[in-house]
Amino acid sequence: MIKGPCILIPSYNEERTIGEIVRKLKERKFTIYVVDDGSSDATALKASEEGAVVIKNGTNMGKGAAMRTGFDKILEEGKFDSVIVMDGDDQHDVDDIANLIKKAHESGADLVLGNRMRDTSRMPIVRIATNRFMSWLLSVMTGRDIPDTQCGFRLIKTGLLRKISLRSSNYDIDSEMILKAAKAGFKIDSAPVKTVYKDEKSNINPFVDTLRFMRLLILNAFRG
Question: What DSSP state is assigned to residue 80?
Fold first, then answer.
């Protein structure tokens, strides 16, 4: 029997937050897959104790590689019609999952992206500028109006995942997914989610990840 959605959380050294996130998701009756991407702490143990299905990468391979590992497992099992990806550092509010699901049902979208740009008061200024630039450029390239292309909080239909081939190993996987979904003719929509920033240090390097983004766009252009 096909159910959906399930939750996928790529995680690296998130022992401080992952247990509480999984607990909240279990209360909402979700099946949760946590990919422990070579953590040196108790991320896998904390997630497992709260009832998540834990998949372990032996070394730290990057967010994109962790997501691809999780997607492969979920598609192999074939139990769910969609996957909701969220972070393991508590920057995504589990209550906003309802917005993603509602939008997917209402619009029939194959990819629903979280949109944090309605309220950027708590978002670092560098992140705002980088996100607006990348979102503008991807919107132009895809011919879609996408206000927040860099939000990793998203719902993806498994039918889409079976049709596109993702290759990125880092944060550029979020952009790669949009480009390839648009090129393949899948419907993309957005739903509001909250901006949650605390005192944790982000793993995103604006300079390095912008370079990866530009490289992705160049490769995508040459591949037609």
Answer: B
